[in-house]
Amino acid sequence: MESALPSLVFSLVLAFAPSDAPPSEEAAAAPLHERIDALIEAPLEGRVSPPADDAEFLRRIHLDLHGRIPSQAEVEAFLADQDPEKRSKIVDRLLEAPEFALRMADHWDLVWNERRPDKHVKAPHWREFLRRAAFENRPYDRLVADIFAADGSEADPVERAASKFVLDRDADPHVLARDVGRLFLGRDMQCAQCHDHPLVDDYKQAHYYGLFAYFSRSAVVEVPGKPAALAEKADGDVTFASVFKSKVTHSTLPRVLDRPADPEPSFAKGDEYRVAPGTNVRHLPRRSRRALLAEELPDPEVEAFARNGANRLWALMMGRGLVHPLDMDHSDNPPSHPEVLEALTEEFVACGYDVKRILRAIANTRAYQRSSVPADHLSDDDLSPERYAVAPIAPLAAEPFGWSVMRALGIVESYRSAAESEIERDPRLKAIFEAMPEGEGAALRARMVAERVHDRLSPSLGTFHNVFGAAPGQPQDASDPTVQQALLLLNGEPVKSWLGTIAAQLAPIEDLDKLAEALHSRILSRPPDEQERAATREFLENRTGEARTAALKQLAWALLASAEFRHRH
Amino acid sequence: MRRCDYACGTREHALSRRSFLAGAASAAAAAALPFGGGLSTLAQPAVAADLQSRQRQFLVLWLYGGVSQLETWDPKHGTDTGGPFRSIETSVPGIRISELLPRTAKLMHLMTLVRGVNTGEDDHGRGDVLMQTGRPQMPGVQHPHLGSLMSRFLTAADNPLPGYINVAPYGSGAVNAADAAFLGPKYGSMTLTDGKAPANLDADPGLEPGLDAAREALRKRLNERFARSRRSALTDAYTATYDQARQLMERKEVFDLSKEPARDVERYGSHDLGRHCLMARRLLMSGVTFVKVSHTNYDTHNENFDFHLEQLDEFDRPFAALLEDLHVSGMLEHTTVVVKSEFGRTPNINHLYGRDHWSKAWSIAVAGAGFQKGTVYGATNDRGTEVVDGQVSAADLFHTYLRAAGIDPTDDYSINGRDVQIADPRGKAIEEILA
Fold this sequence. Notes:
Distance between the termini of chain A: 26 Å
Oligomer: heterodimer
Number of strands of chain B: 18
Strand order of the largest sheet of chain B: 7-8-6-9-2-10-13-5-14
Strand content of chain A: under 5%
Largest sheet of chain A: 2 strands, antiparallel
Number of helices of chain A: 27
Order of helices and strands of chain B: HHEEEEHEHHEEEHHHHEHEEEEEEEHEE
Number of strands of chain A: 8
Largest sheet of chain B: 9 strands, mixed
Strand order of the largest sheet of chain A: 1-2
Helix content of chain B: 25-40%
Largest interface: A-B, 70 and 73 residues
Shape of chain A: globular
Radius of gyration of chain A: 26 Å
């Protein structure tokens, strides 16, 4: 059974207000995760890999929900836990921890901003905007609405940061038509700019220009003394013609795909502006087309909006979308499991676009929890990734890899201790926590610690972005491994110095068996087998002092450089 | 029979087949990349049969800023556009080039000049993209550099050296993944600046060899354990990079210019470009697939003649030495050479004695594998203001470079379910200059 939503702990957090009534337990035949499993397993007829073992599952769920591997303490606690419900409980715990919100904010930043350098909105404000949304578990449709409702004039820089999506694309209607299509509707309609898409029947030129029309009147304006913001004209119609039939001109109002355009009110001459155009004036129409998108994009009539949202959440957990690639949703590229996507989408809408709820449901499926070891009786067809008979193996992307290296080598832990003692020693913070209701003070402290660790260590990710990441503008998931990556791990900084950290942390452990366990739990998130214990003994036997430390560093290195560490599995 | 652990028909399977095949052709075979959208797979290998026997290589001299065709390959002495420099005879009767390239003139019998270039792009940035990728710059779409394509198609799977090296006066020494666009960072250019080797090639001097061996052995054992139950093309590709890294570390003297004999340093010249061309020779002889040497700055909006006199003097000596050495060593038989810029310069001389950007009628020069020798293709009118014969576009040139290197420019990739041709379909190879 699906667990009940945990109660929200922050008093600062806005109340969760679903737009529709929550799904009643009696109306749904079975919990979502069970329905998903039934649909996925039906064609497989029992030909699936067994569930991942505890260690495999724990590592995977940490990577997916927190963006890094678990700590040694977390590994040991989970493996020792006898509770038969421990898997669903840890999913709940991880979703409520501050690291989840930080991870979601990072995820949205990467997906929506795609590593663009800052232009009119600074990254820290944008990140804080996304974090607030993540900490509140703000419904996805509201978050997207906030992004298009903002116009850059908001006094609070964090509220203003919502406008980054439009402002930092310079309000260019072509770029926005394409990116809104790709990122919020799952459709890359760039080819429909000049004519109906040549290969995809569903993508029409009218759809492209329908989105274009929301932005064609807008421009970025920098009034002296004020930060850049959006101005908008009150006139300007959008017309288009196919390059193949250039004599026939069409026109369109702003509209999202096939949803009928709302009629445009007409204003008396002289009345069409709220703020009339002039020098050093940010002109504003009485009715903004851009702001209209905030209402119309997440409209229930736009099925593609919820569908794309659900598909991307699936991809976040499962490594690929039900519709794959994520921005090629059309009838000639059907989802691998249409009914699963329908069920996921329906639930996403019915529960008020609750991101945590959907991720929880996916995490609780057997499909998600499958082992990545292909069972012997699976046919080659069964092993295709879109059958979900076996969990995928994929190299960790640049951020999760960098964070996992930092966690494995004890860097996260040492920053965490430092942050905790700082906060402990600060009398003002102490007073604030004590003034708050019991659980909330603790939750706020946990959030502050997590944010300090995250923000102080993020700069160290730079090398990992450069060497393990894809170029800006290219898909940011994995690509071919390179020699430069191997050289960095073999000889380069910061890994070389960080090995010193883990060696120093583990050196006091005299017992070689315990040392083997600590190393493997920390780095590979599992206990060592017999051969690995023997290997540890061999490595360190008869070594003392500096020689022992040197050996310990290289022992840790071997685990870090292994394929097992490098991949999500 | 050993069971193949990879799922057939999946992209991982195709990737694993690549790693089992040996030889140059395998690099061009199924270029599968795992999950995610927007990644490329090559539909059909486009490699000519003779590539399998001899590694094809490519050298580009990139004269940054826009070298003047009137001061190099297509002089118009005696006209109002010709400027003060004269033309001289070359080793090919009937072909004359600027007197600023005396040594190069003696090697004209190895070269071909293309004088009818009309690329319609006068902007540095866009001209750079046009000439490096063969396609005009378009928002939201990136195409790979010529060097990335060559690195991808021509490099043998077991060659540990970077496939695309850019020898430049400045740069960070890192890999520039953006050059490779959707091919992936593996095929990005690596910038070598002034004798500084790429990053992380030196083993930690504090690491005792015994420990190094022990850590390697343990890493391998862990990989074997993992592979027993979870072998995948991806994990194989990953573990292979360590072997390649070791090989590259062992070959790091490839990047050490001080190993070149002193007399060659003298011959090429001890100035920057001299050393860079010598480095290019070293890299090519070591088996690097694609080397680009950049020389700056030819953007002579003022004092065009003084600057070109100086710049071309810097260029002529090492370029001629390099071309000569490649020829004498036999390397020119399998190495293609191209000298190009973003665009040329105006026939009109402005009030600062300069020439401005000009893409309507300019020249490039080629030599080596795949090209005819000692010829000229295309011509401009007597003042150099327009092309009168053999007009070619940037796309045409790009097709031609690929064909010279044995790659079919009309073949396709598949990106996001769309088939994209390797070279811009609007172009066509210049058959007349291909051998």
